[in-house]
Amino acid sequence: MAENNKTVLVSGGAGFIGSPLADAYLAAGYRVAIVDNLATGKRENINPGADFFEVSITDDALADVFDEIKPQIVNHHAAQASVRRSVDDPAFDADVNIIGSLKLLEQARKHDVKKFIFASTGGAIYGEQDYFPADEAHPHRPVSPYGAAKAAVEIYLGYYQEAYGLPFTALRYANVYGPRQDPHGEAGVVAIFSQKMIACDQPIINGDGEQTRDYVNVADVVAANMAATTSDFVGAINIGTGIETNVLELFALLKEVSGADCPVEHGPAKPGEQRRSVLEAALAGEKLGWAPGIELKAGLGETVEFFRA
Ligand SMILES: NC(=O)c1ccc[n+]([C@@H]2O[C@H](COP(=O)([O-])OP(=O)(O)OC[C@H]3O[C@@H](n4cnc5c(N)ncnc54)[C@H](O)[C@@H]3O)[C@@H](O)[C@H]2O)c1
C-alpha cells in the first residue's frame, strides 16, 4: 500500500460512484472520511476502513466534520442524482445540489482545502448537442433543473478559485454504469435493464430505442478521480468514451452477456428526453493522462453478474 498522509473527505461515499472511489483512496493510502445521509447510498457500500459521518451536506453539522477531520482534499459526489426528481421538485434539487455544494465549498475554503473535485455531468449540462462528440467548449443548455444546478455549481467553483485560490476539477461524466448502480440515477437504464433481463420481467424500451448515450464504466470514472486528485489541472473536463450507443444496441449487448432471451417491448417515448449525447474526452487524456479502459460489453458482463449475485 502506498503511504500517504493526506485526508480526503468523500461526500456521497455510500453511493454508486462514491463508494468504489472511497475504496480506491483507501487502497492508495489516504485517510478517508465519508459524509453521506444515506438518501440513496447504502450502508453496506461503506468501506469499514473509512470514518463515516451520517450527515447531510446541507446540515450545519458538516462544520463539525471538517473541524474533526481537517481534510486536505474534498471529493464531492453527494447529490440528488435523479433527473426526474429534479423536474418534479426543482427546489429540493437545488437545496441538495446547489446549497449543499456551497456549504461544502464554504467549509473547504475555511479549512484551507488544497483540492476540490466535483462530480459534474456532461450530458445534462450540454443538453441537445450542436455537434458530436461534445467537447468542454460546447454551449450549456441544460434540459433539467438537475443539469442547471450542476452548471451553477461549476460557476461557483470558478468563483471560489478566483476569490480564495481554491483549486478545483469538475469532472463532467457521461453516463456512468457498473456494479452498485442505482436504477434511479442518471444512467439508470443499465441497472434497470440488467435487473429486468435477469428476471425476464419485460424490459420496456421508451420510444424507438435510437436515443444514444455515452456509457462509461464506474471503474474508469474512479481512475479519472484518482488522476484528478494528484493533477494541477484546474477547470472542467469531460469523462466519457466518445462512443455513442443507442438503447437497441445496449439491449442487444445485455441480452448477449446475460444469456437471457427476453422479448423487446416498446413503450411511448419519454417527453423531453435527450436524443443524443456523447462526450469528447481528449482533454482528459492531455491533462490527466486518462483514457477509458473498459470496453462496454465486458463492463456490462460484470454489471449483469453483480445484479445476478
Ligand atoms: N451515475 C451517473 O451516470 C452520473 C453522471 C453524471 C454525474 N453523476 C454525479 O455523480 C455523483 C454520484 O452519483 P451516483 O450515480 O453515484 O448516485 P448515488 O445516488 O448512488 O450517489 C449519491 C450519494 O449522495 C448521497 N446523498 C444524497 N443527498 C445527500 C445529502 N444531502 N447529504 C449527504 N449525502 C447525500 C446519497 O445517499 C448517495 O450515497 C452525483 O453527484 C451525480 O450527480 C452521476
Overall mean pLDDT stands at 95
Shape: globular
Intertermini distance: 29 Å
The SSE string, one letter per element, is: EHEEHEHHEHHEEHEEEHEEHEHH
Largest sheet: 7 strands, parallel
Fraction of residues in helices? 40-55%
How large is the share of residues in beta strands?
15-25%
Structural class: alpha/beta
Strand order of the largest sheet: 3-2-1-4-5-6-11
| Unreliable stretches covering 5 or more consecutive residues | none
The hetero compounds bound to this protein are: nicotinamide-adenine-dinucleotide
Individual helix count: 11
Q: Please tell me how large the radius of gyration is.
A: 19 Å
Question: What is the number of strand segments?
Answer: 13
In short:
This protein is 40% helix and 17% strand. The chain is built from eleven helices and 13 strands.
Description:
This protein has about 300 residues and is α/β, with parallel strands linked by helices. The chain is about 40% helix and about 15% strand. The strands form 4 sheets. The chain has a 7-stranded parallel β-sheet with strand order 3-2-1-4-5-6-11, sandwiched between helices. The protein has a two-stranded parallel sheet with strand order 7-10. α1 (about 20-25) links the parallel β1 and β2 (about 30-35). The relative contact order is 0.13. The mean pLDDT is about 95. Nicotinamide-adenine-dinucleotide (NAD) binds near residues 11, 17, 36 and 185.
